[in-house]
Amino acid sequence: MSLLQIVLALLLAFIGMVILAPIYISLLQRLGFGKQIRTDGPEAHYGKAGTPTMGGMLVVAVVLFLAMAMRIEDAATLTPMLTLMGVGILGAIDDFVNVRTGIGMRGRWKLVWQTAVAILAAFYIWRHFDLTGINIPFLGQFEVAPLLLI
Description:
By secondary structure, the chain is mainly alpha-helical. It has one domain. Helices cover 62% and strands 5% of the residues. It contains four helices and two strands. The protein has a two-stranded antiparallel ribbon. Helix 1 (3-31) crosses helix 2. The longest helix is centred in the first third of the chain and has 29 residues, at 3-31. The protein is globular.
């Protein structure tokens, strides 16, 4: 993927979000997908009651739509896209449960599932791209392959 294609994709994603966000927020409000605030929480949070949730689904949908429209097929791009889908689905489930019950998923379970998605993505990247280190700008290359065994 060239730099021009990347910039074009980012620009299209931004424009898509600007156009679709107000429509999507209105739809969420009409469907009743508003934040439920627990009464045992801080009073400052009471003002958030009814704020639409599940906004992340629009971000995921726009990114995936553009990836398909631009026919991005290389594994180096699809892997982060699938990871985005995984955590996006997790966020949608959490928001949906929160809207219906007012509680949402417990933090520990969100962390467990996020960790599972991250481990699957890291394992796939490690096995298919033969990456053994990370490059941190101005600091250099750091080998992380031994840490993968932990």
